[in-house]
Structures are given as C-alpha cells and as structure tokens.
Specification:
Blueprint (H helix, E strand, L loop, with lengths): L1 E4 L4 H9 L8 E7 L3 H17 L3 E8 L1 H14 L4 E5 L5 H5 L7 H6 L2 H4 L8 E2 L2 E2 L2 E5 L2 E6 H6 L12 H13 L3 E4 L6 H15 L1 H8 L8 H13 L12 H9 L3 E7 L3 H6 L7 E4 L11 E3 L2 E6 L6 H11 L2 H11 L15 H11 L4 E3 L2 H4 L2 H16 L4 H15 L3
Parallel strand pairs: 1-3, 2-3, 2-4, 9-10, 12-14
Antiparallel strand pairs: 4-13, 5-6, 7-13, 8-10, 8-11
Helix pairs in contact: 1-3, 2-15, 9-10, 9-11, 9-18, 18-19
C-alpha cells in the first residue's frame, strides 16, 4: 500500500495516516520515504515481493516529495514516528542518532551476516560501534576518461585498476604538452570540486580522518590537512583553468570533445557523456589513484539508507523488512530498476553495462570505507564554506594559508571547542 504526499499538507496527512491504525487483520509496518517516480515503482515492487513472502505483514509506504520530506522528517520522527524512515548514511544520519530518533539495529546486521555482505558500508552505517542504517543503493564516483584524448597525447590508456599517483601526475604533464586538460571540472555550483578534494583527502589520510574533518573534529591547521593540500597543489596546475566559471555539464562537454582527458565525477554523468556522443569504446572508468601507500582504499558513493525509528510501533516486523531490503535478491532487483548499484556485494548488476560493473567492483572491494560526498558528510553551512575554499584553492593556490585560516575560523565558530 502506498500513500503519496506532497507540499505543505504532507506532515499533517502523514500523522493522520500513521495514527489511523489501518484497520485490518494484518500486522502493519509503516514506512516514510521520498521517492521520485522510478524508485517509487521499484519500492512498490519491493513491498509486493516482501508481502508475498510474508502474507501476515502489510508494509504501508507514505511517499513525500523531496523538499516536503526534508522539512518534515524531524517533526514526524518526534511527533508520531513511522516504523521506518528513509535518510542517508554516515554524518547525515548522526544528528538523528544522537537525538535518539533512529534506533540501534546492530542485531539486524549480526543476525543476517551483513557485516560481510554489506562490508563496504559498515563504517558509514556505524556510529560509536553500533549500526543504525540499512544501506540499499549507492552510485560510484571515480575518474571517467576519454581514451581518444589519451591516444592523442601519446599516453597509455589505463585499465579499471587505474594508475599510480606518480603516473597520473606524469601523465598530466604529457596532457599539458598536448594542450589537453588533464583533469576537468565545472565548479560554478561548488559541489564538483568537493569530489576532487574528498578523494585527495581520503587517499592521503584515509576514510576516518576525512570523516572527522567533515564533522568538524580536525583542525585545518593540522599537519595532516597540510599534506592533503600539498597533494591537491600537485594536481592544481592541470585542472581546467576556468572551472569556477562553468558548470559540470560544460566540463562534461570538454571531456566529450577530447579537450580534457579525465573527469572526477559520479556515475550519473555517464548519460550526459553518451548524449554528447561518447560510447563504451572511448569512455573509460578507473578508481582514483592511491597516494599514501598502505591506506585502505575508500570510495565516494552517496548511499541511501532506511532506518528503524526509536518510536516504531512494530519494530520486530520492521526489522524483518530491513533484513529483506539488505538481501542480495532485493537489492539486485531494486537497483536494476533504478540504474544504481546494490550495496550487498553478493547482488548482481547488468553485465552489459561496463560502468555499473566497474563501479560495483570498485565499491564492493572498498575495505577502507564509503564516504557520502562532502555536502552530505558535513553540515550545510560547514559544507558550503569548505567547498568555497576548495574552489578558491584550485584557482588561487597562493592563497592557501588564508583559505585554511578561514576554514579553521568557520570550524571553531560552528563547532565550539
């Protein structure tokens, strides 16, 4: 059963629905979500399959539009919570965990072997040693590259395993000599530069340090942050010079045209590349290079999650549904419908799609953790000032000290020590 709610009336309607008892013989699990039409249809199919296997349980999904959901979630979690609620992993779920609004579901993980099957998402689902989320879909970031640009510059085309950091920088010199941007991005909207920063940060110091940095726990004047900017500075001369004046689609056009060789971007851009004329023959994908040897590889993969609420009226059946959502079978079907990647490493993806296949391999073997992207891992105001700093550094690296001082001032203001 699905209820669809939008706009300002959504919260009040949701509260009436959640308290109406749904007079029927079946046990009810209530679930609040914010799906667009395609994932909503996938969720409806998921519910139908679960109810067929569990005929004594009725899962009632109340669907909001995105903005209504963001505005309503804290209110309905406090006033009259559903059993389950959609949200996001890692630091984005932390405020709800710390407020006692999301429940500990470590038993669901332990009883269903999720530490193994969802291994890549353990860190992003865990706070203080306990699991509070079931991740069911994500999409990879990494480096998309133009094979034709590599050939034009006389550079060996990498495979999915990528290249070393030293090789990547050496290749950048060759691209520069060929008048090809080694790395492109379009940062007029700020967020694309966060993808570059996040990877350099994780490859320099690892997932946990990066997560702590996004959470305001690390000083921007620390030696570890200095090392990140040292490495970012090595890349800066090879990034599209006017990136601050263009958007991400403009940068995609540079990759399509062979004016740029590499693009640090999410898998959602593949459609844009192909609309521009690229094919599987000249579009490639590789993981971001290792920088500090021995650091477990972490990846950027914004992850959608479902949470048991602390006020759940039917927690046991809700946990049964969460276990089903975590299964390889359910995740294979849901993600095939929406064109994203399952978090369960035993799930399957379309073997005919080389980018989904490469992304699934990269994420399923990322033992170092899964980051959620800077503007999800950091609070909104902190995320914005951070991205402004990353953008400025990639334009004006000589302003590094002033940028770090500004970021540190924001940290101490937003996170009083």
């Amino acid at each position: 059963m699905v209820h669809k709610l939008t706009g300002a009336v959504a919260l009040g309607a949701a509260l009436m629905l959640s308290t109406s008892a749904f007079a029927q013989d079946k046990r009810v699990v209530t679930w609040n979500a914010d799906y667009d039409p395609i994932p909503l249809a996938a969720a409806e199919a998921l519910i139908a399959d679960f109810e067929a296997a569990n005929p004594e349980i009725d899962v009632v999904l109340t669907n909001f539009d995105h903005e209504a959901y963001k505005n309503a979630i804290r209110n309905f979690l406090t006033a009259d919570p559903p059993d389950l609620a959609n949200w996001y992993a890692a630091n984005r779920m932390r405020p709800f965990v710390e407020a006692g609004l999301f429940a500990d579901i470590s038993d669901v993980w332990a009883n269903n072997g999720l530490m193994d099957s969802l291994a890549s998402s353990v860190l992003s689902s865990t706070i203080d040693g306990k699991q509070y989320a079931v991740p069911y879909t994500y999409y990879q970031w990494g480096i998309y590259y133009n094979r034709d640009a590599y050939k034009a510059a006389g550079v060996d085309v990498p495979g999915p395993e990528g290249v070393t950091w030293d090789q990547f920088l050496a290749n950048c010199e060759k691209f520069k000599a060929a008048n090809i941007d080694c790395v492109t991005t379009g940062s007029s909207a700020l967020w694309p530069v966060a993808g570059i920063f996040d990877y350099v940060s994780m490859r320099t110091n690892g997932y946990q340090f990066h997560s702590d940095l996004a959470a305001g726990k690390v000083s921007w004047t620390s030696p570890e942050v200095a090392a990140v900017f040292d490495n970012l500075g090595k890349l800066q001369p090879y990034v599209t010079a006017n990136h601050a004046a263009i958007d991400w689609q403009d940068a995609a056009a540079l990759l399509v045209q062979g004016k740029a060789a590499n693009y640090v971007m999410g898998n959602f851009a593949v459609g844009v590349f192909k609309e521009g004329g690229m094919t599987n023959d000249n579009l490639g994908f590789m993981v971001f290079p290792e920088i500090t040897a021995g650091i477990a590889r972490a990846e950027e993969a914004p992850t959608d999650t479902i949470h048991l609420t602390s006020g759940a009226k039917n927690p046991e059946d809700a946990k049964t549904f969460l276990a089903y959502v975590a299964s390889a079978e359910a995740q294979s079907k849901w993600n095939a419908a929406v064109g994203q990647l399952p978090t369960n490493k035993n799930a399957t993806v379309d073997p005919a799609d080389p980018f989904l296949t490469a992304g699934f391999q990269a994420l399923s073997t990322a033992t170092g953790g899964i980051a959620q992207f800077w503007d999800r891992d950091a609070d909104a105001e902190y995320a914005k000032v951070g991205m402004e700093g990353f953008q400025q550094f990639l334009v004006q690296p000589e302003q590094r000290d002033a940028i770090l001082e500004r970021l540190e001032a924001a940290r101490t203001r937003l996170y009083p020590q």
